[in-house]
Write a structure and sequence with these properties.
InterPro entries: Ank_Repeat/CDKN_Inhibitor, Ankyrin_rpt, Ankyrin_rpt-contain_sf. This is Ankyrin repeat domain-containing protein. Keywords: ANK repeat, Repeat. The protein contains 10 helices and no strands. It is mainly alpha-helical. It has 2 domains: 69 residues, Serine Threonine Protein Phosphatase 5, Tetratricopeptide repeat (Alpha Horseshoe); 74 residues, Serine Threonine Protein Phosphatase 5, Tetratricopeptide repeat (Alpha Horseshoe), CATH 1.25.40. α1 packs antiparallel against α2, α1 packs parallel to α3 and α9 packs antiparallel against α10. The longest helix has 18 residues. It is elongated. The N and C termini lie far apart (61 Å).
Length: 167
């Protein structure tokens, strides 16, 4: 890792906007990453550092990059709806999947993050996608005890099934 990139990653980790801005101005890669592929944008999204997320996106960071587990910054932003909104407004894939087929909606379901799940749904997340275990987001919500999310997702699934039924 280049020294400049290390400075950017350190600044992002502690939420130091000015230091992150200086590191980028000084030549740090906007897509600087740890050895595990965890980029500056992943770090900022995970920590809810909205100004830094915007700084990185405005400087051309790859919004759909993947870490070594296949997680995108949007997957990592679950629990931070304002960060998720910024990523989605910048073109992040609302249904981006990991190598195991896990979507951001499935992550929100697993963590019981109702506000995040609602935002993803408003932004067009598909409720019927299945991961490698053949589970939907609703299945995952039920498995994790996120009953409110399971009911919400089930109601959307039944509405779409009802609207597709012949009259």
């Amino acid at each position: 890792m280049r020294d400049k990139d290390g400075l950017l990653l350190a600044a992002v980790k502690v939420g130091d906007f000015e230091a992150a801005q200086a590191a980028i101005a000084g030549g740090a890669s906007k897509d600087a990453a740890t050895p595990f592929g965890f980029t500056a944008l992943h770090i900022a999204a995970t920590a809810g550092h909205l100004p830094i997320v915007r700084l990185l996106v405005d400087n051309g960071a790859d919004i759909d990059c993947r870490d070594s587990h296949g997680l995108s910054p949007l997957h990592q932003a679950i629990g931070w709806p304002e960060v998720m909104q910024a990523l989605l407004d910048s073109g992040a894939d609302v249904d981006g999947v990991t190598a195991q087929g896990v979507t951001p909606l499935m992550c929100a379901s697993a963590f019981g993050e109702l506000a995040s799940a609602r935002l993803l749904l408003v932004m067009g997340a598909k409720v019927d996608l299945r991961d490698d275990r053949d589970s939907t987001a609703a299945d995952i919500a039920r498995e994790k005890g996120a009953d409110e999310i399971a009911v919400l997702l089930d109601s959307i699934t039944s509405q779409s099934t009802d609207s597709e039924s012949p009259v």
